[in-house]
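WARN no homologs supplied; continuing
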Amino acid sequence: MKYTRTPRCTRPLGGRPVPLLIVVALLLIAGGCQTSSPTSYDNNIGSETSDTFSGPTYLRGTVGSYGSFINNKPRYVGGYGMVVDLNATGSNEVPRWMRDWLINEMRRNNLGSVQFGTEAFGPERVMADLGSAVVAVEGLIPPGAARGSKFDLLVTMVDQTSTSLAGGRLFWPTQLSPTGLDKSLVYTETLAAGYGELFVNPIAPEDETGTEFLRQGVVVNGGTVTEAQSVQFVLNQPSYRVANLVAQRINSRFRQGPEDTLETAVAKNDGLIEINVPQRFSNQPGELLALIEHLYLDPSPQFVQPTADLLGRALVDSPEDRGRPISLAWKMLGPNATPVLRQYYNHEDARVQDASLQAGSWLQDPQVLVPLTRIATAGKPADRVRAARALAAMSRNANARKIVRDMLDDPDPDIRIGAYEALVLVGDRAVERLSVRGESDHKFFIDRVPSRHPMVYAFQGDEQSIVVFGGDIALHKQTFARLGDNLSLRTIAVDSIPVGLRDRHAGLSAFVPLHRCGALELIPSLTPVSDDPDAKLPPPDWRVEVGDKDGNSMMLNIRDAELQDAFGVNVLNVPNRGTPSDTPRAIAMVRVVQPAGKDENGKPTPAVGELLQLRDADASLPIALRYRKPGEREPKVYRVTPTVATLAYTLGFKQDNINTKTGPDLSFSEVVQALSAMSKQKQIPAPFLARVSPLAKRVSAAQRNNQTQSRPEITPEEFERLERGDEQIDGFPDSGQSGSDAPDAPEHDGVPDQGNTNRLPGVE
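OK structure emitted
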């Protein structure tokens, strides 16, 4: 591959001295390049020492001081397509300049073809249907994306008479290119294609007064890269020796994983290094490149602590703009830098403290636990969320994970969401995850997390998820909701409840008639305590033994304060509570925590459940879900346990492979809209939140952002000495030294466990 460089200074040509007149002429042409020796640390550490040193002194010796990345930013692509399956919210008005082009695109995708069985979807018929709409499709291809990689798509209606994209999907793979939205419709360099079901947020943004937000949607992982996007690192001055040194150091720190076909860095020639993003960084390639840029070439122990100390003093001098680069550099120095980092864990400047704690948690230093815990429990909301992510990343420390799990009980919904996202990122077991599948592919997740504050949260991150805080949230006792023209819910009256306590599986929700109840007892392990006498604590947790009419029993945990009161009044405050009754005193909705079994001595042990809801003995229980698929005359009826998680699963799944049961097969967007409508109708006794996708802002910013940041560089003298190879410069290793033998390298090599791709870099 050819590339060009602007000369910065003179260097030996062909290994021979350059005549003085030629040197003078080159200096005049290049604008008078100057040289200077590296300066030691002083109060002006961030200033440039010469025209050839454009970055701060404390980053000299990093990979970024030897060159610069190209193609290291997300690449914008766009194109025009068509959305179908709308509920008469589209438009049959197609712009004149696009009509012929659209017809050709549809024919190119074999629509309206008898041969391919698509004669019912002829171009003219599709464009005339109010269930379709012309859209602009945009996306950002991550740097280093391999062929076949996925990315999100932003879809926006083109015609102003269209009103909503809810329920729609991109009809055929839309071709995406950097100039795809040019009205000339002359595509160049097609890099990706995209299609799939759209998600339209049913909740208007705070700054939105009308319904314009319904005209834009997101297809999560809807874009597929068709042309690999390579990231390259170009040296300031060409040198085979330096190129190989840089590549060796990168590969020693970011090793090739079992799923990777190429090494992370490959020196292609004397001035170009190709960067291949490892699979474990595929969801965050930008973070990988930032870490590489701040990786020092010297791996020796004697280099680490003085450099870590230099970084710390530089950060204290100017914390307002040095926090992230210095934190990245600290991370790349490895665990031997932690003695220096510990000096700043309790620094009076929050920015200095944060930079050191982020690096320390990434390096798995247990001494960050105390200050991070303090921030996570009593800091500002944004700082608490950052602390939660840092604590969750400490996979080797069980206490750190417990602190984050406790944050799921925080009254602030943003803190609960931040704690949940931190736990999901590292694959924590506190999140019970269920995949909802269509005919063959995964559609979205239903996540259940324990919390004292019930809430339903829908969001799109790397995946689409509906999160139920509080385990299982029961629907209103008497449920009736109409969710559009084709979907409705209604409670079913039943004479008996054929559900007992025997053979219940862990995680399963069931209705349990309470014919017998014992005495309440405290659960010590779950009872909150505090050394602060003024602290406001949640109510203690209780346990009671309950039984059904067949003599089966269960230990029932009651955590919610309102349920504790209701249980005391409606169940315990009755005559002869310890003796079985012919009719149930109440109906409990229970989630089985532990099934019945036997102890180590073979003695039977009762099942353990958690009380989710308490109903009157004569209350109606399950709900009937009636759904009429568009184009069909008769609706189908599904019997559903009335909890949010079960309802969401039923709405979304297509077919149960075990029991061959079919479901409505609604899209993620349609399920979220149904839950949002039920929340507005007060059928869900918990707040409902849906996060607005940030993709629109990112796409807009990518179109504007063409600036590059300055970077540190080495002086000509340093380069020539390194090129000659007669000594080590700034502690750089000799080419024969392998970075993998460096004693400072952490065991986890700065990357997650190969077996769990959901984990953060730096986490095992």
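The first strand starts at residue 67 and ends at 70.
OK
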